[in-house]
Amino acid sequence: MILIWIALALAIGVPVALAATSEQLAWRGPVYVLSGFAGIVALALVLVQPLLIGGYLPPLSAYRGRRAHHWIGGALVLAVVIHVAGLWITSPPDMIDALTYASPTPFSPFGVTAMWAIFIVALLASLRRRLELRPRTWRFIHMPLAIVIVAGSVVHCLLIEGTMETVSKVALCVLVLAVTAKVMIDLQVWRKRRALRGESGARQ
Amino acid sequence: MTKVVLNRRNLLVAGGSVLTTGVLATSMPGMLLPARAAGVAPTESMSGGANNYRKGAAVVDRIGKGGFWMSGTVRRAGDGAPLAGQRIQIWAHTVEGQEHEPQSHGATLTDKDGKFRLEMPQIIPIFGQPHGHLAYDSGEFKTVFLRPVMRSAKETSLEAHFVLQPA
Lengths: 204, 167
Description:
The complex is a heterodimer. By secondary structure, chain A is an all-alpha fold. Chain A has eight helices and no strands. Chain A has one domain: Four Helix Bundle (Hemerythrin (Met), subunit A). In chain A, helix 5 packs antiparallel against helix 6 and helix 6 packs antiparallel against helix 7 (166-186). By secondary structure, chain B is an alpha+beta fold.
């Protein structure tokens, strides 16, 4: 039980620690440094999200895991906002190019697309009750967007030449993909199961 | 014609792509076909090339403390003749400053063979790619902004080539 927490701490802590030793940091201003780390934290949170919702982090109950998933979702939005705002301050024309999908850097459109997917999920999640979205409808919306977020974030991160150390970066990205695939298989998100609908409905 | 192909290859490498000329011809026909039709085709500005541009950087012997070499050529569209005395402005995020800061900017002039070479501080990755910026913006020819990317952040030189057309 404790092993999964240690593994999670290492999966996130090692890449963050190695990025903190990057020689690139010496040539960056504080805002640029902050926005870079906000991006790394965002990727780490993308790893935490499927772990929480899949119930892989004992002793968190399914209910508590789901609550934490909501809060971490909010934190993810915040991390992305800091990432984008910090980069905007660092170099406005480069950020505007990225946001308008006119950037010369191949990783930008992946990151920007993942960002919009994160914002859409967060917005719909906050309005879910008001919109009276049924669990099945919610899943139908959330799962494709979750895939866009995971795939977009991973490609974005892998193509960037920045402060992250390569091996720890690839390892974190592979973990994000693996955990996402596992939770989607375990929860059988694509199967129209009456029982599953009832179960999720009861939890809400 | 050999010269043209070499030039294209340099441009491509600068763009971070490792493509064969054949792939280039199919993927970017706009860059090669006009060259065949009307001699040497003019260089198009690269996307993001003008970012953090400061108009009117002074001609300098060296930007900052140096240690890194930016070089290239300037030729005329059509006949490909070298253009002497053309002012090329150069800027980048280096170990001595960010892209927008004045000390990161400088300019140099081409020699009689249309070649330019300016020493500047080591370029480091910014916004996820180690890249430099160059501009021809002197009025006689159409303005061109280039944004070549280094194959590796460890490299200590970078090239960019201009083919200019009358304004």
